[in-house]
Amino acid sequence: MWDSFLQGIMLSFGWQTIAMMALGVLLGILVGALPGFTTVMAMAILLPISFFLSPVVGIPFLIALTKGGIYGGSIPAILISIPGTGASVATTFDGPALTKKGQARKAMEMALFASFVGDMSSSVLTMLFIGPIALVALKIGPPELTALVLLSLIVISATCTGSLVKGLIMGVIGLLLSMIGQDPLGYMSRFTFNIFAIKAGIPMLPMLIGVFAIPEILTAVEKEAVSYISDKVDLSKVGERLKFKEFRRSFKTIMRSTGIGAAIGACPGVGQVVAAFVGYAAAVNASKHPETFGKGELEGVAAAEAANNAVNGPTLVPLLTLGIPGDNITAILLGAFIAQGLRPGPQLFAEQGPLMYAILMSMVIANVLFLFIGYLTIPLFARIVTIKKSVLLPLIAVFAFAGSYVYRSDPFDLIVLVIFGAFGYVCKKLHFDVTAMVMAFILWPILEYSFGQTLSLAQGNFFHYVAFDRPVAGLVFLITPVVSAFFWRKAMRKRHKPKT
Amino acid sequence: MKTKHIVQSILVVLLVGFLCIGPAIAADYPEKPITLIIPLGAGGSHDLNARVFTSVIPTYLGQPMVIKLMPGAGGQTGTAAAVRAKADGYTLIFTHNFIDQLQPVVEQLPYDTTKELTSVWRLNYGPPCFYGLADRPYKTLQEMLDYGKKNPGKLRFGTTGKWGAGFTPGAVVLTRAGVEAAFIPYQGGGPALQATLAGDVDFTVGFPAQGLPHLKTGKLRFYAVGAEKRLEEAPDVPTLPELGYPVGSLLMSRIILAPRGTPPERINILREAFKKLYQDKTFLSLMKNLGENIEFMDGPDYEKVRAEQKEEYTSLVKKITG
Predict the structure, then answer these.
(1) Is the pLDDT confidence value at A277 over 50?
(2) How sure is the predictor about A498, in pLDDT bands with cuts at 50, 70 and 90?
(3) Could you say which residues from 260 to 319 on chain A have a Cβ atom under 8 Å away from some Cβ of chain B?
(4) Do A196 and B76 touch (CB under 8 A)?
(5) Is B47 on the interface with A (CB under 8 A)?
(6) Whether residue B22 has pLDDT greater than 80
(7) Cα–Cα distance for residue pair A304/A96, rounded to 1 Å
(8) Which of residues 268-287 of B touch A (CB under 8 A)?
């Protein structure tokens, strides 16, 4: 094994590999930064390139592309409040607020470093513990998933700020919206009122852009664009860099989020979105000043970004060890492998040891490249907010519409964007937080689907099945009320504490 | 007299003009990239097959084919878009028979695929394989079905996509054998395979590509291959027809369809280009790497298959749903 490890490292340091990876990172950042263009799309389009390259060049190229793309998605989230994917929704909690304070560059640097630390630690962990992670991943089935997502939901909602009733109302709206379309188990149409366009459900991307970006634009227009970035902000300060002190202050948060992200990554089917939300919620909960979160807290950006990037390493494990892709990104990577005649699976490490270690090593190299290239491109992006506001706001609107359309090229998505834009604006005026709605919208389908599967697996005897056949899931179910009680007590204590 | 002359000459000019335009349309096509709608998600077998042939076909077509993934509602979103598209040969759909012919039988759709789409080419087919953990007491398909019969509701079948390629073949075999099994739905072949490996379900129906590596390590057992021929990589595994189950409409044919009304000469240009693929070394080696067969079928032949499928699926659904 040591031999093939060393050979692998040698392989991965070829100049072609490095050059293509650098290109991949750069492309990824650019694609990720454009609203509506997703990393998955970029990978699918560029996949054929890898057919005609050697495997140690082509596959690392795609891996580099994903690393760049996932970070790239945080750029519009921070600068113009447009989350390109579900994974960067949590970044919009604090990112845009920082931009408005004139700390865009700082926020982006924090996102970059947090992403780097999260991804790097999880990649190294993955390399070291690929065997055990594979075992855990295989054991996580629908019952465990149900228990985990339920627990995550409680953790996330317990740390939500603002009015409980309003949060609940928004949560229920999100839940109902997520049920429109075909149910995940039996594929029966529900709440579609025979309208064909919504048979596939409400498209997530236009909805996200609608509720997050449009209200920002509208409120800015309303105030005659004076305050999208407050005039008091010294624009020459936009370029202000992240201080080491600030990074150090967030380091604990980054490590916590990395742990959470890596653990969630090892459970197939949960994914980056949940990781970012839970990472953020945990940071709020652990913080001594939770009230600063959501109002432009650097730690908030760090928490979300470290968590969603830490998912990347472990999600590769089922792909490499079993040949089972956990999400779209790994499914495309699987395509790249098999088009090369390499079939990921139990024998691949035995047959192609050096190559596999080269590919694992390339994850680490991709991270280093990503740190450099990302760092170099930040000043470029940060300048965006120095554009005159009367030009920037229409530009954001253009990006919001273009981004919604380009995803599926379906005109219906523009209607969705406008409706949710208006809805988001009304919510903002009435001080309803759309975040609860978005979380419910994203998480509910996972929960419904895995719970439904669990019920069919249990064949009508849910409690017996979970208690005796699925002890891990049972344990998590048992912990859940304890955790809820803990959060409830904490919230109560805070409420009774006199304000100082 | 003079006017007649003028009218005549105009007519001649027009006629000559039309004669020129006819071939000109054919010769000019394609003059811009062709959109290929895939009504399924990124990274699936359709996506991969399409990435392979679209990376080679520009050599023979003179223009690229651009893939547009339009997943949603089990393939309905993309199919509806293809039906709505202009019939000018610049929009095609790369789909499969379960979306094309089975879905209309089980769902109310705002379009009629048979009337509104026509076959251009069948790229290849995916043979549905029945596989499960090797540690189960039953060793053959028949033994497994017998076990299922003796223990109603105990046999767990991990399905993917209702009435799709990972559902229908299993449902047909179970119904014909009179077995009452538990259907556990999974979102895609990956999760279903994982559930099989973890022992959550007793068997699943999937394509060889994902299952074969685990057959080699001895973790999985293949009960049957849904194809006319046995798999080269697993010559010991019997085919469904050998076991007494006809396989015709259970294969997943990967097909390219065009909106009906697309000029026939344009469809012919497309067919010629597809035909040439099967002599292209890059295409053949990439398909081999993917583990896909190259059992193509020309459009007119496949059009007949579609008609048969329609009948078979109608009676099949009646039988299964009772």
Answers:
(1) yes
(2) low
(3) 268-269, 318
(4) yes
(5) yes
(6) no
(7) 14
(8) 286
Interchain CB distance below 8 Å, B51 and A335: yes
Least confident window among A227-231, B137-141, B194-198? A227-231
Q: For residue range B300-312, what is the model confidence (pLDDT) as tens digits? A: 999 999 999 999 9
Q: Please, what's the largest Cα pairwise distance for chain A? A: 67
CA distance A490 to chain B (A): 38
pLDDT at A236 (0 to 100): 61
What the block records as the tokens of B145 is 């079905």
A355: its two tokens: 């190559």
d(CA A415, CA A418): 5
Peptide bond into A411 cis (omega under 30): no
Three state DSSP letters for A47-82? HHHHHCCCHHHHHHHHHHHHHHHHHHCHHHHHHHCC
Structure tokens at A381: 């992006």
**DSSP line for B70-127:** ---GGGHHHHHHHHHS-SSSSEEEEEEHIIIIIHHHHS--SS-HHHHEEEEEEEEEE-
Asked if A181 lies within 8 A of B73 by C-beta distance, the reply is: yes
Give CB contacts under 8 A, 24+ apart, made by A295-298.
A295/A94, A295/A97, A296/A94, A296/A97, A296/A98, A296/A100, A296/A101, A296/A103, A297/A94, A298/A94, A298/A98, A298/A103, A298/A106, A298/A107, A298/A110, A298/A242, A298/A246, A298/A249, A298/A250
| ipTM summary value | 0.86
In a mutational test of the B interface, the residue from A332, A416, A461 whose CB has the highest number of chain B CBs within 10 Å is: A332
Can you read off the two tokens belonging to residue B261? Answer: 């009304």
Beta carbons within 8 Å of A318's beta carbon, 6+ residues apart: A134, A137, A138, A268, A324, A325, A326, A330, B190, B194
Token pair for A11: 């392989």
Q: Which of B66, B187, B219 to mutate to test the interface with A (most CBs of A within 10 A)?
A: B187
- Smallest CA–CA distance, residue B72 to chain A, in Å, is 5
Q: Using alpha carbons, list the distances in angstroms from residue A397 to A130, A148, A391, A417.
A: 45, 38, 10, 11
Q: Is the pLDDT of residue B95 over 80?
A: yes
Asked which of A41-55, A273-287, A377-391, A458-472 is least confident by mean pLDDT, the reply is: A377-391
Sign of CA dihedral A491, A495, A498, A499: positive
Q: What's the average model confidence in pLDDT over B148-167?
A: 92
Question: What is the rounded distance in angstroms from the CA atom of residue A415 to the CA atom of residue A404?
Answer: 10
> A299-320 pLDDT, tens per residue?
999 999 999 999 988 988 888 8
- The residue whose two tokens read 């079948």 is B157
Beta carbons within 8 Å of B262's beta carbon, 6+ residues apart? B87, B88, B89, B118
List, for residues A389-410, the tens digit of each pLDDT value.
778 888 889 989 998 888 777 8
Compute the average pLDDT of residues A218-225: 76
A vs B: CB pairs below 8 A = 147
Percent of chain A with pLDDT over 90: 36
**Across the interface, do B74 and A187 touch by the CB < 8 Å criterion?**
yes
Structure tokens belonging to residue B31: 């003059």
Q: Which residues of B148-175 are buried (b: 16+ CB within 10 A; e: fewer)?
A: beeeeeebbbbbbbbbbbbbbbbbbbbb
State the pTM of this model.
Answer: 0.88
What pairing do the DSSP bridges indicate for beta strands A181-182 and A189-190? antiparallel
Q: Scan for tokens 């929704």, then name that residue.
A: A89
pLDDT of residue B88: 94
Q: How many CB atoms lie within 10 A of CB A471?
A: 11
Tokens, residue B127: 């043979």
Does B4 score more than 70 pLDDT? no
Amino acid of residue A312:
N
Q: Which residues, 6+ apart, have CB-to-CB distance to B22 below 8 Å?
A: none
Three-state DSSP at A342 gives: coil
